[in-house]
């Protein structure tokens, strides 16, 4: 796959840049469609949620129990509105602790 | 006078960008590790981060590269996942100083990430592009270096550590979506609905063979579309999205 990785990178970078650039360069007027505005407002939440769950459960190499621990810790920290870094670290620490306990029991 | 103002704006952006840079470093460190684990070289991973500067899009893109997905799938996935940037660019387009040469718009666009957008759109009055550049000059090296260091460390990272760090990105995503979901009922419904639909795709026998890129596209279109149809936002609510 090595030779085509650069093609993937080019496609990714090109599409992402066009998305960022076209509205800035072409549209200097305000968007008025309530549906389009609302759709774009909800997109990041839908997208990030779909990417997070259930993928977080299967991310740790030891399996779903450690993943569930990470999910629980991240949910609690995020609910308390901790910073991005803190929430990410809480999830990591929870997975680490869960894997140590599982290793001890197993 | 003008020059001095631009310089001050740039320095202010640089200062404000430092915490963003630190946060980026941690997340993109994980990306570097995962990219190398997936078979990319250190330089490919670093180049990918430098040219894309987007967490969600890069992680989804990495999965497609590892799975040897089609370029169409890649383009579509990036389009849907990164579509939010076009809204941000729309907003910044309104906020930019009117008299600046349009060349600035091409450069401002390159640094349109969630966090830099959050900083720039929160400025009072019109946006001087040099503030945006200052934030970019702090944040983009953090993002790129994080990937580089993570990719270098990936080869020597002990298993327990990479397993623990594998959830960092999801933790960050939750930190982005849970606080707004707490405050806004439609956002809460969107988060729960999207998680439920993607879980269905993960466990139902035939559906779980569909690649994750398309699952994300499909889920996002359905859930965000339904939410926009049933719960259109008022003008004031956009603020919560922008932070």
TrEMBL record, chain A:
Assigned keywords, A-Z: Membrane, Transmembrane, Transmembrane helix
Entry-linked InterPro entries: Brnchd-chn_aa_trnsp_AzlD
Transmembrane segment boundaries: 6-27, 39-57, 84-105
Pfam name, any one: AzlD
Entry protein name: Branched-subunit amino acid transport protein
Organism: Blautia caecimuris
Automatic annotation (TrEMBL), chain B:
Membrane topology: Multi-pass membrane protein
Organism of origin: Blautia caecimuris
Keyword Membrane: yes
Family of this protein: Belongs to the AzlC family.
Higher taxonomy: Bacteria, Bacillati, Bacillota, Clostridia, Lachnospirales
Protein name in the entry: Branched-subunit amino acid permease
Matching Pfam families: AzlC
Keywords on record: Cell membrane, Membrane, Transmembrane, Transmembrane helix, Transport
Segments passing through the bilayer: 21-44, 64-85, 130-153, 159-177, 189-207, 213-231
């Amino acid at each position: 796959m090595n030779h085509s990785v650069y093609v993937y990178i080019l496609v990714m970078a090109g599409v992402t840049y066009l998305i960022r650039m076209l509205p800035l360069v072409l549209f200097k007027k305000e968007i008025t469609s309530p549906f389009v505005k609302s759709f774009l407002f909800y997109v990041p939440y839908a997208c990030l949620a779909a990417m997070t769950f259930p993928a977080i459960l299967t991310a740790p190499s030891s399996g779903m129990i450690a993943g569930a621990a990470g999910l629980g810790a991240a949910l609690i920290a995020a609910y308390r509105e901790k910073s991005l870094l803190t929430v990410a670290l809480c999830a990591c620490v929870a997975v680490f602790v869960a894997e140590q306990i599982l290793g001890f029991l197993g | 006078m003008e020059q001095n103002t631009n310089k001050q704006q740039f320095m202010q952006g640089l200062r404000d960008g430092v915490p963003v840079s630190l946060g980026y470093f941690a997340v993109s460190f994980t990306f570097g590790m995962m990219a190398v684990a997936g078979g990319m070289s250190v330089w490919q991973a670093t180049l990918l981060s430098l040219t894309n500067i987007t967490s969600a899009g890069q992680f989804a893109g990495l999965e497609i590269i590892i799975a040897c997905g089609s370029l169409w799938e890649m383009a579509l996935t990036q389009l849907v996942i990164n579509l939010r940037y076009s809204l941000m660019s729309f907003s910044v387009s309104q906020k930019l100083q009117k008299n600046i040469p349009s060349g600035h718009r091409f450069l401002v666009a390159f640094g349109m990430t969630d966090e830099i957008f959050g900083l720039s759109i929160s400025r009072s009055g019109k946006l001087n592009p040099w503030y945006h550049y200052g934030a970019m000059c702090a944040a983009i090296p953090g993002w790129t270096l994080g990937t580089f260091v993570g990719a270098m460390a990936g080869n020597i990272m002990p298993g327990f550590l990479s397993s623990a760090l594998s959830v960092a990105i999801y933790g960050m995503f939750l930190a982005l979506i849970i606080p707004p979901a707490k405050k806004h009922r439609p956002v809460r419904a969107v988060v729960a609905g999207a998680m439920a639909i993607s879980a269905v795709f993960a466990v139902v026998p035939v559906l779980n063979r569909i690649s994750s890129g398309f699952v994300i596209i499909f889920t996002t279109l359905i859930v965000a579309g339904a939410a926009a149809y049933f719960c259109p936002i008022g003008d004031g609510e956009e603020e919560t999205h922008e932070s």
